[in-house]
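Notes from the 1:1 (GR / supervisor)

We went over the backlog. Supervisor wanted to see one worked example end to end before approving the batch request, so GR pasted a single chain during the call. The sequence is below; no edits were made to it. Supervisor asked that the structure be written out right there so they could see what the output format looks like.
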Amino acid sequence: MNTIKIVGKVKNPEDSTPEENFRKAFVLIREMDRVNPYPRPRGFVFKARTWEEYEKWRKSQDNPRLW
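Structure output shown during the call:
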């Protein structure tokens, strides 16, 4: 007879509060920022005269978080 070992319980998502979900998301985002090889950019505005100029600038960026 095959038996399955159950460790812990799956928490019902309806039982969690918005504050708890926000806290968990904050921890995950902080961990993602820690292991991401690209730094989080500061806010800035890039103004291009044409779409072609913008595409040229965007393709020249090493950090994919910029666009």
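Supervisor's comment: The mean pLDDT is 85.
Batch request approved.
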